[in-house]
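In response to the reviewer comment on reproducibility (Comment 2.3), we provide here a single inverse folding case reported in full, input and output, so that an independent group could reproduce the run without further information from us. The structure tokens appear first.
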């Protein structure tokens, strides 16, 4: 066949030419058909994209279907007459109250104050928890000293220290942020210790054989390998920080979503109370989803990036 390619077309026998002609015509037709299919697909990209978008939209709607059902049940039950509007105002009235607070600027102010306190306390607790967890997992002296304190303090409701914090620091932002940091540090410490102690021995042995010291083992091997567990502790601590921020604002008063809900409760404003509940739920959901996106970004190298979790 290689020799036939170098022969001129006229020197080929007529029988051989007639035998290869159907094959050549079939290949030419198939190539033309493929080119026409590519041109038609390029000319109509919407036909291929639309089903994919529809499936994505349907999946997103299915994920929030329970929330939609809960909202409809709330609205229908509140308007059924089984309860008074004071006990359970309709969801539409609650949304109207949220819109009025937004136009008046109260919603933005209270949300900003609450987020500032929650995020500040969370960052302090996260940094302290990671450093303390690293020290406990790598130092026998730190483990001897801090492990009993963590074991006793973790199951204890730290909100019991709130009266003491008020006596020491007053009722302003410092006391609230300290209370949030105290609550946030324990999940991060526990996750960091478990993560670093759970690093595979083979990784540490290989690093030591390559000449790594204790500092290189901690910062370049143990800490990156334990990053999934540490981020899990941060994901647990962030909603706790928001909860404690709301509780301290309710207890101490002042600006913030918790303070606004407490004021509405004192004046028997049920719409204001339920509006605060909805606002806290939306902000908490946004924080949790944001932390999930950060986790996905930081763990692109990890196995869970191939099969991500549903958190």
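Designed residues, in position order:
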């Amino acid at each position: 066949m290689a020799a036939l390619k170098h022969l001129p077309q006229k020197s080929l026998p007529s029988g051989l030419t007639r035998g290869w002609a159907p094959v050549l015509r079939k290949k030419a037709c198939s190539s033309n058909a493929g080119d026409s299919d590519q041109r038609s697909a390029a000319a109509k990209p919407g036909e291929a994209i639309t089903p994919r978008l529809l499936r994505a939209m349907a999946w997103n709607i299915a994920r929030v279907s329970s929330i939609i059902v809960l909202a409809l049940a709330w609205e229908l039950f509140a308007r059924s007459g089984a309860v008074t509007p004071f006990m359970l105002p309709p969801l539409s009235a609650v949304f109207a109250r949220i819109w009025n607070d937004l136009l008046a600027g109260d919603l933005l102010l209270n949300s900003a104050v609450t987020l500032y306190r929650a995020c500040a306390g969370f960052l302090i607790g996260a940094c302290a928890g990671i450093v303390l967890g690293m020290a406990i997992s790598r130092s026998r002296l730190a483990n001897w000293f801090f492990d009993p304190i963590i074991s006793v303090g973790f199951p204890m409701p730290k909100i019991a220290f709130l009266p003491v914090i008020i006596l020491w620091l007053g009722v302003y932002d410092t006391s609230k942020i300290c209370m949030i940091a105290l609550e946030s540090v324990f999940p991060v410490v526990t996750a960091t210790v478990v993560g670093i102690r759970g690093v595979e021995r083979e990784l540490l042995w290989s690093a030591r054989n390559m000449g790594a010291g204790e500092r290189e083992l901690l910062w370049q091997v143990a800490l990156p390998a334990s990053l999934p567990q540490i981020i899990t502790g941060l994901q647990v601590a962030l909603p706790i920080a928001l909860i404690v921020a709301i509780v301290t604002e309710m207890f101490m008063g002042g600006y913030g979503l918790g303070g606004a809900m407490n004021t509405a409760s004192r004046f028997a404003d049920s719409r204001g109370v339920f509006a605060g509940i909805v606002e806290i739920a939306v902000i908490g959901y946004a924080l949790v989803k944001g932390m999930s996106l950060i986790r996905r970004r930081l763990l692109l190298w990890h196995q869970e990036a191939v099969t991500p979790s549903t958190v």
